[in-house]
Amino acid sequence: MPSEKFKLAVLVSGRGSNLQAIIDSIEKNYLNAEISLVMSNVKDAYALERATKHGLECVFLDPKAFSNRNDYEQKMIDLLQSKSIELVCLAGFMRILGKKFIEAFPGKIINIHPSLLPAFPGLNVQKRALEHGAKYSGCTVHIVNEEVDGGPIILQSVVPIKDEDDTQSLSERILEQEHIIYPEAIKLIIENKIEFSGRRALRNKQGN
Ligand code: GRF
Question: Which residues are the active-site residues?
Fold first, then answer.
């Protein structure tokens, strides 16, 4: 009996290469999921073109069309709930989400960040890791909570920093890892293979 597909939403603002990695993972049957909605806060985000090319439903929600953040987020919540979304995946979504939104999907919002958290939260993190002189960077998939880039960590991948690296070369090598671990983390969640002990995401003993 074919199992019901897990309903994902992907929130984007730009290039959408992580969205593409999720789409590819679904098309290769690595993920038993469907992207029920792609939502962007940027009208000309290339991610929307990718979504359209793959026949996905997408929506641009213009923050300027709302008088405050609360109303904007309520609209997002309404749209996502109308699609019975089970997991909200932030993929380069460049807006900080407020309490109301986070509480509407408790533990069901994840993000991919291009550093080894808790080192280098925030913006321009590949450049900052390089300038700091870090020898290793990488990427992190984490649960979204009210602290920016501060929620429980699901998966990480380590990327060594080479002497000859510049921001671009480091960003590219980190991005390759992002495209691997984001689908992996989604799979762990879909298959119910992780459980939380405080902040720690542990492999569920029933799964493997
Ligand atoms: C990625 O580096 C991701 O880690 C960060 O924003 C970037 C989005 O890239 N949160 P893309 O739009 O998925 O190509």
Answer: 113
Task: Give nearest CA residue, ligand 1 atom 6.
Answer: 92
* Any atom of ligand 1 within 6 Å of the Cβ of 151: no
In the chain, which segments carry CATH 3.40.50.170? 1-106, 112-208
User: What confidence tens digit (pLDDT) does each residue in 30-71 have?
Assistant: 999 999 999 999 999 999 999 999 999 999 999 999 999 999
- Domain 1-106 sits in CATH at 3.40.50.170
Enter the CATH code of domain 112-208: 3.40.50.170
- Whether ligand 1 lies within 6 angstroms of the CB of 138 is answered as no
The 3-class secondary structure across the chain, one letter per residue, is: CCCCCEEEEEEECCCCHHHHHHHHHHHCCCCCEEEEEEEECCCCCHHHHHHHHCCCCEEECCHHHCCCHHHHHHHHHHHHHHCCCCEEEECCCCCCCCHHHHHHCCCCEEEEECCCCCCCCCCCHHHHHHHHCCCEEEEEEEECCCCCCCCCEEEEEEEECCCCCCHHHHHHHHHHHHHHHHHHHHHHHHCCCEEEECCEEEECCCCC
pLDDT, tens digit, for every residue of 122-161? 999 999 999 999 999 999 999 999 999 999 999 999 999 9
Residue 16: CB within 6 Å of ligand 1? yes
Q: How far is the CA of 92 from the centre of ligand 1 (A)?
A: 4
